[in-house]
Amino acid sequence: MKRLFALLLTLALAATILCACTKTETETTATTSDDVSAEPTEIVVFAAASMTETLEELAQSYEAANNVKLTFNFDSSGTLKTQIEEGAVCDLFISAAQKQMDGLEEGGYINTDTRLDLLENKVALCVADNSDSGIKTYEDMKAHLEAGDILMAIGNEDVPVGQYTQKIFAYYGLDETALADSGVLTYGSNVKEVTTQVTEGAVDCGIIYQTDAFSAELKVADTATEEMCGQVIYPAAVLKESKCADEAKAFLDYLQTKEASTVFEKVGFTPLASK
User: Fold this and answer.
1) Global pTM?
2) For a tag on the chain, would you pick the N or C end, based on fewer CB atoms within 10 A?
3) How is residue 17 annotated by DSSP?
4) Is residue 68 within 8 Å of 62, Cβ to Cβ?
5) Comma-separated ranges of CATH 3.40.190.10 domains in the chain
6) What superfamily does domain 123-223 belong to in CATH?
7) Helices of type H across the chain
8) In CATH, which of 2.40.160.20, 3.40.190.10, 3.40.710.10, 3.90.170.10 is domain 41-120+233-271?
């Protein structure tokens, strides 16, 4: 009887120890698993359409090294500004012109301490491969528009590239309304739409950015000078209501590094800020 009691006591003790070990191991495994599978922080970036290729390329290495998920919204800066004002979730905004960023700053939407001029671009005149217009300069463009023998694509008036185009027209004394009425102009809601019209040969030429010309493998016929349309500056800032402002600022810092600058320069941007 004593032997039976001792045997049962030993078995009970062994079972208790086994359960305790199993519980500890399970808790340790769960803790380790939680550490390894921590969800990446999502950073929502609103950026000018002309930055699509460069930012998507840079995101690949940045996400892998920083446990973040970059979610991009690419469109015209005017459209993005409106979306932000209407309450869209955005952590970092990169505009293709100062006008849209100025508007958001005046409205109290951005953290002004983070605002900086990130990049400079050039406004380029590109001619479609199938065009026989012979356009090589902005002066040629002016002559053909006045003759009414070409079809040209430009950005809408609320799109930065369209606003730069308006300045170029003013520089050459061209009346956009009269040109549009005569049927020689077509429009795009962002620079990518204008670029597509040129690459598909739907128009003879178009005014876009030199970076978009590079990405679309279009030949640049001419680039506008500062006198013609001013500088094409891309300002950037973290949004005041961002839920991950530190992470958004860290990504903005990364965009100023040598690694990022190399990618920007490859397509024709000129970096203006550096870390």
Assistant:
1) 0.82
2) N
3) H
4) yes
5) 41-120+233-271, 123-223
6) Periplasmic binding protein-like II (3.40.190.10)
7) 2-36, 52-66, 77-85, 98-106, 138-147, 160-171, 176-182, 191-199, 210-215, 226-229, 245-254, 258-267
8) 3.40.190.10
